[in-house]
Design a protein that fits this description.
By secondary structure, the protein is an alpha/beta fold. It has 8 helices and 8 strands; from the N terminus they run ββαβαααααββαβαββ.
Length: about 400
């Protein structure tokens, strides 16, 4: 259980989480990746208050690993250069003239293929450079967080914004590849049309043997061009798919890194990506629902007995380790208010506890946990001395 009060943060959730999850088999949930990176600077008043708060951190656990950018997927390396078109002679026949026209069309097609190949190699090189700059920025942020820093460090904020810009450039590279895909698809359609016309030319009357010999050579070259275009389109599509998945994952991780920079504490990968990584089979789309709390122990207890309670790191650790063992897990946040002090005081405390629970829920969402995984409820307790928020595993 994790207790957070005005003196310290004590993390001892390992035994409890293991006991709850041991021996169970679960399927994965379908998680939607975050699409934007949040500016981690935050308000200056919040930053100053957090820096003054006397918080004793626990020894980092296995879940508290730096947010490391996943290695970008390998780009294709094939160069798609046509071998050219064999010259022919004008035999003076109608079929011979048709062969000359088809040969000119093939040359124009191969020129388009060469142009598209050049654009593909260019965008691949740009994507690699953008990825390297992105990794440099992420590594610098992680290195600083790992040794400790102040909440909302402006140097880290600048590096974070640079990483966000570099990731956007990779997204722009994907857009360029999508435009290129449209051009290659048009070439593929033209190549299929040219192949059909070349085969049809064999059936025209009035040809001599030389005409058919030239058409045979032309047909082979058209077919090779068709295969080349198909391979280009296939490799380009695979590049787009891999890079799109990579960018989606990194955008989700940047949301969590934003929270880490804002708090000045080392976290890990997005909770969304942790759940997807730990999942082994199947997908569900469940929404968290409240159930009876009788006999259940909370994963985390946060006591709001002062302002600006620093709970993000302990909360992230508990939820992250839970998702490693149970990717499909849903959670319930319970706002707990003291039941003493009369009806007016209880109502006031209940409202405050509810707002605290909503604040914790927003923190979980910044860490990458989708809102449909979280249920929120409220209750009063005779044992509570201050407003609390309990996190339960559903």
């Amino acid at each position: 259980m994790t207790f957070i009060n005005n003196r310290s943060i004590v993390v001892s959730a390992t035994v409890l989480i293991t006991g709850l999850l041991a021996g169970c088999s679960f399927s994965s949930d379908s998680l939607l990746p975050s699409l934007t990176g949040e500016d981690p600077a935050g308000s200056s008043s919040t930053t100053q208050a957090q820096s003054r708060a006397p918080v004793q951190q626990s020894t980092p656990t296995r879940a508290q690993q730096p947010v490391r950018a996943a290695q970008p997927p390998a780009m294709g390396t094939t160069k798609f250069e046509p071998k050219g078109v064999t010259s022919g002679s004008n035999t003076g026949t109608f079929v011979g003239q048709k062969a000359i026209e088809l040969r000119a069309e093939l040359r124009r097609l191969q020129a388009n293929v060469s142009k598209n190949n050049g654009e593909l190699q260019s965008v691949r090189g740009k994507t690699v450079q953008d990825s390297q700059r992105y990794h440099t920025a992420i590594s610098a942020i992680n290195a600083r967080l790992q040794v400790g820093t102040t909440p909302g460090n402006p140097v880290l904020v600048g590096q974070f914004n640079q990483a966000l810009s570099d990731l956007k450039k990779i997204g722009d590279d994907i857009s360029d590849m999508n435009v290129l895909t449209t051009n290659v698809t048009a070439d593929s359609t033209l190549a299929a049309f040219l192949a059909e016309n070349t085969r049809a030319a064999f059936r025209l009357s009035g040809a001599i043997d030389t005409d058919h010999q030239q058409l045979s050579i032309l047909e082979d070259e058209v077919n090779r061009t068709v295969v080349l275009i198909d391979r280009l389109l296939k490799e380009l599509t695979e590049d787009i798919q891999r890079q799109t998945n990579y960018v989606a994952t990194e955008r989700s991780n940047l949301n969590t890194l934003s929270a880490a920079v804002k708090s000045g504490e080392l976290m890990g990968a997005s909770l969304t990506n942790r759940a997807l990584t730990a999942a082994t089979a199947g997908t569900t789309n469940r929404r968290a629902q409240s159930r009876s709390l009788v006999g259940r122990r909370p994963l985390v207890v946060i006591r709001f007995d002062r302002s600006n309670v620093a709970y993000d790191q302990a909360l992230y650790s508990a939820v992250s380790r839970t998702l490693e063992r149970r990717p499909s897990a849903t959670f319930e946040l319970v706002a707990v208010a003291p039941a003493s002090g009369g009806a007016a005081r209880v109502a006031l405390n209940s409202n405050k506890a509810r707002r605290n629970a909503e604040s914790v829920m927003r923190s979980l969402q910044r860490m990458g946990l989708p809102p449909q995984r979280i249920a929120v409820s409220a209750r009063t307790s005779q044992a509570a001395q201050s407003n609390e928020v309990h996190l339960y595993l559903n």
